[in-house]
Write a structure and sequence with these properties.
- Helices cover about 65% and strands about 0% of the residues.
- The protein contains six helices and no strands.
- The longest helix has 26 residues.
């Protein structure tokens, strides 16, 4: 995926710009920015980067403090999610290929062919 790293860096830079008051504070907001980026669904893959790596959605710090329905079936869900990780990654790959094709079509609509003399 050409340009994926540049796009990720651009998105993280935008998040940091919104979170910081002074440009000198950017390093303090970096962990929060990475958490936000890794746990949000990307349009290019249709999944979160965290779920593609670990096979399940991230447990947010607030969910650790407040008991939720997640604790009751945690082991069963984890096993099911690990069984489906390859399928999830293939789905993300197909989604990213479709996204690239859409972007290429959009770009190619604006391209005017050269006139040959």
């Amino acid at each position: 995926m050409n340009g994926a790293v540049e796009a990720a860096n651009k998105n993280m830079k935008k998040i940091i710009e919104k979170m910081t008051v002074n440009y000198k504070d950017w390093h303090e907001m970096l962990p929060f920015t990475l958490l936000a980026y890794r746990t949000s669904i990307l349009s290019s893959t249709g999944a979160t980067p965290y779920s593609l790596v670990y096979g399940m959605e991230a447990v947010l710090p607030i969910e650790v403090e407040i008991p939720s329905m997640r604790e009751a079936e945690c082991a069963k869900q984890r096993y099911e999610q690990l069984n489906l990780i390859d399928e999830k990654r293939l789905t993300a790959l197909c989604h990213s290929q479709c996204y690239q094709q859409r972007m290429a079509r959009t770009f190619n609509k604006k391209v005017r062919p050269r006139e040959q003399n």
